[in-house]
Amino acid sequence: MAQILKHHLLNDLRNQGLPYDEHLFIDKKVNTSAVERRCATVTKRRSVKKVSQAAWLLKAISCIDLTTLSGDDTPGRVKRLCAKARSPIKRSIVDALQVRDLNLQVGAVCVYHDMVKEARNSLRGSEIPVAAVSTGFPAGLTPFKLKVLEIHESVAAGAEEIDVVISRQHVLNANWKKLYDEVKEYKSACGKSHLKTILATGELGTLRNVAKASWVCMMAGADFIKTSTGKENINATLPVTLVMLRAIRDYYELTGHKVGYKPAGGISKAKDALNYLIIVNEELGRAWLNPKLFRFGASSLLSDIERQLDFYITGQYSAFNRHGLS
Fold first, then answer.
1. Any idea which fold 32-323 has?
2. Residue in 65, 163, 272, 310 annotated catalytic
3. Cβ proximity of 89 and 306 under 8 Å
4. Which DSSP helix (H) or strand (E) runs through 155?
5. Does the annotation count 187 as an active-site position?
6. Catalytically annotated residue among 28, 59, 226, 258
7. pLDDT tens-digit profile of 219-242?
8. Averaged over 120-124, what is the pLDDT?
């Protein structure tokens, strides 16, 4: 009974991490062919239609990190994005679906450091957190001291979540202790803010590296593990997702800590969002299908979801530009 109670209490805490121990991950193997076969069955075995599809798409909206990470971002663009975050779908759709009581909002707004204060001011009075990309996003090649300073500055500006990019060279050179120490330092710099580690999976070479990097980041205290910056040639994919979800599941079984998952980059269609929701539900269960443990890193995804909901109501597809973000 004491062990069960301890396990239950652990679930209610943020990920505290583990002491570095290579034995937990060094021999991890991934059967790439089996992973690809498993992912190929997701859409074939599950068909979500009509009212069920609408319900799942509303769930997807609540799990979006609505993002703008462009070189030409302005305070005006961020302000408009935050307005969309607070009211993600048109009032006519809300009324037609009779979901006003949901008070639907996105999971977070994700911006560059310089836009954190603008986002915070625009979201005042809501419960939507601000996430800031940090540590030399997207390449992560700035000096380490500057990376840590950037985290401190983003937290001081009001960012409640920090999306950091790991040093890919540590993974590619199998310098796992260096990766652990790096992420551990980022965790400390975050203070009370949540740490989301971006693996940049498209640049890690193998699924085995993805599995190991996931474990090291979780051991170092990451509250979320995230696929990509969205700037790589290959971003979120279902095979990478399966590998990361199973690492999260194994870590949870070992520690009792639920680590979140965030696929990002290239997820722009409602049908893709459904695929990710389905595989998360099948691999981790419904406990992970909420904004505290699952997020989409996306910019245009919301527009397509709103368009699909409009089609569900009217039976006709509206022009994509009728569902702009900012």
1. TIM Barrel (3.20.20)
2. 163
3. yes
4. helix 144-157
5. no
6. 226
7. 999 999 999 999 999 999 999 999
8. 97
